[in-house]
Each structure stands twice: as C-alpha cells, then as structure tokens.
Amino acid sequence: MTKRICVITGSRAEYGLLFWLIKGLQESPEFQLQILATGMHLSPEFGLTYQQIEADGFPIDKKVEMLLSSDSPTGVIKSMGTGMIGYADALAELRPDLVVVLGDRFEIFAASSAAMILKIPIAHLHGGETTVGAFDEAIRHSITKMSHLHFTAAEAYKNRVIQLGEEPKRVFNVGGMGIDNIKKLKLLSREELEESLDFKLLKRNILITFHPVTLGQTSAQWQLEQFLQALDQLEGVGLIFTLPNADTDGRAIIQLIDAYVKKNPLKAIAYPSLGQLRYLSALSMVDGVAGNSSSGLLEAPSFQVGTVNIGERQEGRLKAKSVIDCGYETQEIAQAFDHLFSPDFQAGLQRVENPYGDGGAAERILEVLKETPLNDLLQKEFYDLKR
User: How far, in Å, CA of 176 to CA of 358, rounded?
Assistant: First the structure.
C-alpha cells in the first residue's frame, strides 16, 4: 500500500532544500507525493516561485493563500490565522498519511498546527537548531513538539531534539539538506550565470542576503543602513543581493536594497529569488557571502567560501571556520570584510570542513520513511533524559 506523503513548502529557500526529497518521493512506487504550496510561493512580490515547482515537474495539489500586504507583527499574525483556515480545508481534502515540513517559518508553524489537530503525523526536517536573534527559534522548537519523526542536520541537533523530550528512536541525523544540491546539480558556467543574471561579474564579488532580525533590539532599517555603508567602502566588488523573506519589517529592507541597487547599477543587482541553480552557481564563484542567512553557514563551507555573518540572527548554530561573526556597526562589518579578503584567511578556506556533512540527506530520509509504519505515530511519550 502506497504512503501518501504531503510536502508543505512556503518559500524559495525551503523548496530548494526539499527538492531532492520531493524528487525521490515522486519517483518511488512506495509513495504517493502530494505538494501543498503556500506563503511566498504564491506572492508576485516574492517572485511567484510556485511556478518553479511546476517547471521542475512537480504538480501542486493544493495552494493556500495566506500572506497579507502588511508585514507588521499584527499582519504576520493575521497571515498565520488566514493560513490555518486554508490548511484545514486543504489537508482535510488531501488526507495524507504524513506531512513533511522543514524549518521554522510562521507559515510552517500554522500548517503544522493544522496537521496536528487533524491527527496527521508530521515529519520535521532541520529541527534542534538554535537562532537566538529570531522568533524562528521558538517556532522551530514548537514544531518539534508537534512532530512525530525528526530529521536533523547534525548530531548536536539530534541530541537537542531528544533533550526536548522526543524519543531517540524517532530522531535521525541525516545531515544538511542543502548539500544534496551542491553534490547533484550541474552548476552554470561563469558565462551562463552572467547571461542569466544580465550582470557582469567583477574581479571580486559578494553574494548577499539580509533578513530582519525579528527579536533584535535595533531596527532592521538601521542594521541594513550600517551594512550598506560598509559595502560602499568595498572597491571593485560586485554585489549580488537576494531579497529577504516575508518577515516582520521585510518590506522596509527590500525598499532600501532596491534604492541602493538603483544608485549603484554597475556593481549591484537584486533578485527576489535566484532559484537553487543560479544561487549555488553564484555561490561557487563569489569571493564571499555576507548578511545573516543560514546559507552562509550551511552551504557556503562546502564551496570553501568565506562568510561574513552579521548580528545575532544565526547565533547558536554550528559554524565552520569559514564563518566570520561581526556586529552591526559599519566599522565592525568593514573589519570583517578586511579579514575575509586577507590572504591568510583565503588560504585557510581550502582546509574548511562543513559541519553539516557531505550530502545524502534525502536518500536517508526516504529509507526511514519506507521502513517506518505511519499508522502508529500519533501517540508519543515524553522522553525523560533521567531514565
């Protein structure tokens, strides 16, 4: 009997991480793949990235509109409520045997809450991680407690999920999902990337993603203004911006980036979404990653590319020696760039190892799903470490 597996995806980055798992589910006769697209995938402002899912050959079974035009805290809360209503109807109609979710975004929290009440088992990917600077931290651990199978990106994260009371036999360390893309995708050449971006790479280049720090003590606008002033000090460096997610204050960041690119058209470009192929192709060619995206920690080390990690958004995550932490002040960021471009640091990148493994996460998850009965997952005991 085939197992109906519903993968829920709400953003470009999360879909990129899920790609090889979705492909494996589609190709295996043991599973019936269902896809529920929501959140930023359905928003023109964020590139209508559901079209990429369909272009990749994955039919979308349900679309749940939920994003409101406001990115204020109350707007995000109302988006979550709208999503809950849509998820209730969609999941009740799809009736999957298991829901697969990844990460820590508010769209996924709402979807997981709906699945839990509908008594649909949940498999959660990339749990156990910590990000002190964002309310994603609380959302991630909340999804862990609602979930029944757990697939983590590192042994330390597996141990943390168990620390949260999850039974060890239900927790599997499979490694980072994004590394599968690095190992399997045929990346673009420099010429192909430049043509696709309509942008000529300079002698040195930086790939930039800056998200709002939702629990930060200073405003997102001030933080980005400090960052942009540091970028102004870089000479002969091309800047490739990917725009932030639909988080609180995200639109203010987008406006500042768009204005900066308009002012500096010869050295800067910005895209709502590059997609996995262009993003990883760019990552393989740039001289560094900058901002506060998890990609600078999870994927950049596999390319031996250094990361300037700004602020506390990623505080608590495992970091390779290729990651340079700094604060928000312009001078701190400028010093981090000096370190990034220094000959000693660049030479040391060749010896960097990625703490999130060397690929194969999707295959490991598929094996567990094949071997695990899904009809007896709902009731679980709290695993007490004092046993």
Answer: 8
DSSP per residue over 63-81, as a string? EE----S--SHHHHHHHHH
Minimum mean pLDDT among 28-42, 67-81, 85-99, 297-311: which range? 67-81
> Distance between CA atoms of 219 and 229, rounded to whole angstroms?
16
For residue 70, what is the DSSP state?
-
Exposure on the CB side of residue 71, measured as CA atoms within 13 A: 18
For residues 283 and 289, the answer to whether their CB atoms sit within 8 Å is yes
329-383, pLDDT tens digit by residue?
Answer: 999 999 999 999 999 999 999 999 999 999 999 999 999 999 999 999 999 999 9
pLDDT tier at 217, thresholds 50, 70, 90? confident
Name all domains of the chain by residue range, CATH numbers in brackets: 3-175+360-371 (3.40.50.2000), 188-351 (3.40.50.2000)
> What is the Cα 224 distance to its own chain's centre?
20
Q: What is the C-alpha to C-alpha distance for residues 267 and 200, in angstroms, rounded to an integer?
A: 9
| Token pair for 297 | 């920690």
Asked if residue 12 lies in contact with residue 49, where contact means CB atoms within 8 angstroms, the answer is yes
Q: Is the pLDDT of residue 183 over 80?
A: yes
SS3 label, residue 241: strand
**Number of separate helices (H) and strands (E) present in the chain:** 15, 13
Let me know: does 53 contact 15? Beta carbons within 8 Å: yes
Give the three-class secondary structure for 77.
helix
Of all residues in the chain, the percent with pLDDT exceeding 70 is 98
